[in-house]
Predict the structure.
Amino acid sequence: MPFTSLGLSENILKAIYEQGYSEPTPVQKQAVPLILEGSDVLIGSQTGTGKTAGFTWPLLQRLSKSSRDGLVVKALILTPTRELAAQVGESVKTYGKYMNLKSTIIFGGVNIKPQLKQLKAGVDIIIATPGRLLDHVNQKTVDLSRVEFLVLDEADRMLDMGFIHDIRKLLALLPRQRQTLLFSATFSEEIKALARGFMRTPKTVDVTRENTTVEIITQVVHPVDNKNKTSMLTEIITSGNWTQVLVFTRTKHGANKLTDKLSIAGITASAIHGNKSQAARTKALKDFKEGSIRVLVATDIAARGLDINQLPHVVNFELPQVPEDYVHRIGRTGRAGNSGAAISLVCIDEHKLLRDIERLIKEKIPQVIIPGYAPDPSIKAEPIINGRRGNGPSQGTAHNRPPSRAHSPKKRPSYSSYPKR
């Protein structure tokens, strides 16, 4: 199906072709016509499927045909994170370059004055995180009473992050007569209940099976004792000559600690998490994309919405405590039809987390023991509380023992077999 069959205007098609795209993705094929006809749409789509462009194109087109007042906000796009807001804002800018529409991005962690200046000058589209947008509402620097289009992007993550109360406050400020689009990686009962509460007989687009991982991603688990994870990760990166790796930790402290250890080992790395300033996060992501650093170490919240083209490797240095986060993590690779590899370093403390993940994705992830890193069978599991491992009284000596090599396979797996893009 060519883009011309979607019903998009020449101005938007021109911008699309300039980006080098020749054919719409499945979510774009299904969602764009429904949005153009004015329907409320509930869309189940994982990251990397072209969903951002899939709502940006028809939104821009419908806005261009709406009666305009330079000081009236006509479209509101809500995202869970600053990074995703920036990504969506860039998409609006890219595809609206031949249209006379103004947009602005609003999120916390940065100086509010430039945002106030842009709002005062007048914008058609606001891309925002809920918290900072409510700050503007409370200061009466933004009026949402004439919004005609609402987009909730990655609604499942907004619920996970506790934004439901902020979302309800914002919904109460919007006119009832509007078009609403809701995007979510899964159709959980919470998402369905949310949709019933503020959408008008929405049409449904589901381009991925519920709670499934992207099939073009190669997944593997490397069992290892916790104290040997850093050296294993270093060996995997160096022996495979990996040049771009996104690594996940459970905590901000863990991200900083791992970044320091990788740097000492001669592997360039930066951390990205909630305690980092927006300027630092932006610089780390820019350096990573440009190849100035090989490893970006991130927590789940900070990495949500990261858009990295053709990212070949994602490593779970620590498994997430919420199984759904595993799907979101590895969805950073294998995007837009590209292949990718997701590697998880799993110690005995994380066995239950691994079982929960496998139950969610309905598949068993292959396990490969790397020679020299076979887990010590005498080590007992410690509880993981709020992302941190506990300090069980009987584990201290076991964790100080050298790793057992008795169960190592004879042949070392080749890391070069993973994608190297």
Summary: The CA atoms of residues 115 and 131 lie 14 Å apart. The chain has two domains: 3-206, 217-417.
